[in-house]
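Page 42, continued from yesterday. The earlier attempt failed because a stray header line got pasted into the input along with the sequence. Redoing it now with the clean sequence only.
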Amino acid sequence: MGGLSLKTRKVHLILLPLGAILFLSLFLEVGLRLWDVFSGRSFFQTTGNELEEPLDPVVPFRGFGFDPYPGESDEFIYDRWERRFPREKGDDVFRIVCFGGSTTQNRTAEQNYPTLLEQELRSRAGNDRWEVINVGNSAYATPHALILLALDVSSWDPDLVILSHNVNDLLAIYWPDFRRDYWNKYQDPFYAYPDYSGRYSWSNVLFQHSRLYWFLRHQIFKLRWKLEVWFPDLSRASIDDALLSRGAEVFERNLRSFCALADSYGFPVLIGTQPLQPSENAFLVHMVHKEYNDRVAYPPQAEFVAHHRRYNDVLRKVAAETSAELVDNDRIFGGDPSLFRDFVHYSDAGLAKLVENYAAVVTERVKVSER
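This time it went through. Structure tokens are written below.
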């Protein structure tokens, strides 16, 4: 570089490190994607972990979630994990649609109970006539299930719908100024304005297709979680019994509306109670890192467990007083810690147990109907 001018040498001193960084980033990007292929995932996936997901569009009437018709027409249905189904059901197909929140969505395209239930039903029957469509989405509650049923699933001609909600509805009463449409919860910037939560920040949008970016973001998130830094402290306060009763009343109303609408279309409903691992630590594992914790007051743990039990009792009541059938997952699980990842999300053993619960009822129902 002896013959180069001072200005040219300065340019080189800047470009060489930038080139090295770019080359290293590209090397790591390809390396991570090759590791995904080695691990049985797609080379073209973005995230590969349960804490980050591809950026979703704003969904009319639901605000957030997934689009069941991402193509140019609604000829096909795409479930929460982009599994494709023909909208027009085949003549010999038994179609099940599963509604719920993150416990229905679950962690990956392979590890969610609707997909595993489909595999189990096909294995038991020795044929492929079974379709199980997952319309669960993280943070969805009964209002989202009602909208999905009314505007989408009512056109899919299901032979059975499975509904399991509890904690997302329950959490609505812990947000300030409870409203019967849950507006007090879902108008919060975390849900209503994704820029606020960081999910649609400029960096997320700019690098949304980079596997390396999401990997590094995930590692930083895990470090924050481990060090318990940069997270709002949990606020605890007892909940007034009158407020709990109002919330349970709204939950019951929504469940009855769902069952009535499904019944009007001739769709049988299977209601599942939501299992709970009642320990304080299990609650904190999932809730301590929520970015909205500075705006929510949670009750003491014993109260929360009692509230969750109250909402499960509502599910049992609605099933008993309507044409819906009940699968009492909470009592079957019995709070066994080995069946949970945290206070409500399932371990692999828990997923297997849940699939077993539903498969037993579904296969018996079909046997009875075919006699």
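Notes: The chain is about 50% helix and 10% strand.
Reminder to self: strip header lines before submitting.
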